[in-house]
Automatic annotation (TrEMBL):
Enzyme Commission number: 5.6.2.4
Enzyme class per UniProt: isomerase
GO MF terms, alphabetically ordered: helicase activity
Presence of keyword NAD: no
The keyword Metal-binding is annotated on this UniProt entry: yes
Official protein name in the record: ATP-dependent DNA helicase RecQ
Ranges for domain Helicase C-terminal: 189-346
Catalytic activity, as annotated: Couples ATP hydrolysis with the unwinding of duplex DNA by translocating in the 3'-5' direction
Originating organism: Novipirellula caenicola
Domain Helicase ATP-binding: 1-165
Family of this protein: Belongs to the helicase family. RecQ subfamily.
Keywords: ATP-binding, DNA-binding, Helicase, Hydrolase, Isomerase, Metal-binding, Nucleotide-binding
Length: 464
């Protein structure tokens, strides 16, 4: 309300949305909310409308007619909240429309996506500070449930937050019971899964559950092998057709209680309050990712169980995921490609589209896009809307691209460190909630009851 940039860290289900809804209603102008997924924006806008407020959605799922209607609602002042994605916000016409109306608050949901050190990294988030400039530099509210001190520093840096107020309410959720089960091979994991999903204690049986898997093959195998469970089994992963993913998600959200076998593609925007179990079939790549995923359980405040099936053999796959980085030559190649593209295909403003660039690029489209986004983070190039890019400097020194490549290698090393931290969590004998609090550098007071975690239960039993 004072116009100060703010970063809030609050557990899933603790009311982050209220932190922008109340100021958004009280302040004049429109509140722009950036969400990483279309489904997440749709869900948030639905809640806003249920509260009697007007909300417009600008993303690629909308028809031309729907977008025109949303533009009219914004121009007329009817829409108090505008939900969009970081990719859509790169379109200069949207920024111009919003800046003419006046933006009172710029909200970045799931702000951990901006951090190359954290999980769920979305390179398009690196360009949000350009959009903020085009919107007239309104006060920015960044929100996330999970961020280590290092991730916080990068969020502040990448979004160019000015002396932000940082509000952290802690990570502990006493209704979530954390546990780790040692496993040895897929057959034992399947037996453990069947047992967990048939558990009739704690009123968990036949209640909604999510089983996270590292690969699409595992998702499909388990969904088929465990199809004889008393409750329906569903599957969700990025290689499914969009219509099938939507059908599966809607069945989980609105149908009878089911088990969802999914990769981490399933999660953001899943605001289902009564998920009673979240089981990880494979070890996640970081504590941040793990906290985000198991945090989808028990949003209604009732008891929920969060279980990790831990097999050290799974580390091979995660170490493979942790590798990969951009090198200096790829970054220089991308910069040179952009200069050539502007000369060959550029418009009057000196911008060129990624589609045109890929025709002359010696590296693949995704690598080219990643390189441009990393060059943009250093102020060497910039997105100019509608998938267009412009070059800000004609030449770059080898030292600059070497430094960016070093950063990329450092991020790869950080992913390996993050995996080691996850292993330490799995093998630790201390309170698991305490371990998480230490990771995020919070001062949570643990519940100290039997619902806390498996290690605490063992300690209590040994004392007794």
């Amino acid at each position: 309300m004072e116009g100060r940039d703010t970063l809030i860290l609050m557990p899933t289900g603790s009311g982050k949305s209220l932190c922008y809804q109340l100021p958004g209603l009280a302040l004049e102008g429109v509140t722009v909310v950036v969400s990483p997924l279309i489904s997440l924006a749709e869900d948030q806008a639905k809640h806003i409308r249920e509260l009697g407020c007007q909300a417009a959605i600008l993303n690629s799922s909308k028809s031309a007619k729907q977008l025109r209607e949303s533009h009219q609602d914004i121009q007329s002042g009817k829409a108090e909240f505008v939900f969009t994605t970081p990719e859509r916000l790169q379109q200069s016409d949207i920024c111009q429309l919003l800046s003419e109306v006046g933006v009172d608050l710029f909200v970045i949901d799931e702000a951990h996506c901006v951090s190359q050190w954290g999980h769920d990294f979305r390179p398009d988030y690196l360009c949000l500070h350009y959009a903020r400039q085009r919107l007239g530099n309104p006060p920015t509210l960044a929100m996330t449930a999970t961020a280590s001190p290092q991730t916080i520093d990068q969020i502040v840096s990448c979004l160019k937050l000015s002396d932000p107020a940082i509000v952290a309410t802690g990570t502990h959720r006493p209704n979530l019971r954390l546990s780790v089960m040692a496993s040895y091979g897929d057959d034992e994991k399947e037996r453990q899964l069947r047992s967990l999903l048939s558990d009739e204690s704690d009123l968990i049986a036949n209640e909604p559950a999510i089983v996270y898997c590292a690969t699409t093959n595992t998702v499909e195998r388990l969904a088929n092998r465990l199809a004889d469970l008393p409750m329906p089994t569903l599957a969700y992963h990025g290689r499914m057709k969009k219509a099938d993913r939507i059908k599966s998600q809607e069945a989980f959200m609105n149908g009878p209680a089911a088990v969802m076998f999914a990769t981490n593609a399933f999660g953001l925007g899943i605001d289902k309050p009564n998920i009673r179990r979240v089981i990880h079939h494979d070890i996640p790549g970081s504590i941040e990712a793990y906290y985000q995923e198991f945090g989808r359980a028990g949003r209604d405040g009732e008891l929920a169980a969060c279980t990790l099936l831990y097999d050290r053999e799974d580390l091979r796959l995660q170490k493979l995921f942790a590798g990969g980085s951009l090198d200096s030559s790829q970054l220089r190649t991308a910069h040179h490609t952009l200069i050539q593209g502007v000369q060959r295909y550029g418009d009057a403003a000196g911008s060129v589209s990624l589609n045109d660039l890929k025709q002359i690029s010696p590296v693949g489209q995704q690598t080219l896009k990643n390189c441009l986004q990393h060059l943009a983070s250093a102020g060497l190039v910039a997105p100019s809307g509608r998938g267009q890019w412009t070059c800000l400097v004609d030449q770059i020194d080898h030292e600059v691209t070497d430094r960016l490549a070093d950063d990329s290698r450092l991020r790869s090393e950080h992913r390996r460190i993050a995996l080691d931290q996850m292993v330490q969590y799995a093998e630790s004998t201390e309170c698991r909630w305490s371990r998480i609090a230490k990771h995020f550098a919070t001062q949570d007071e643990q519940a100290g009851n039997e619902c806390c975690c498996d290690n605490c239960v063992v300690q209590v039993a040994s004392v007794a």
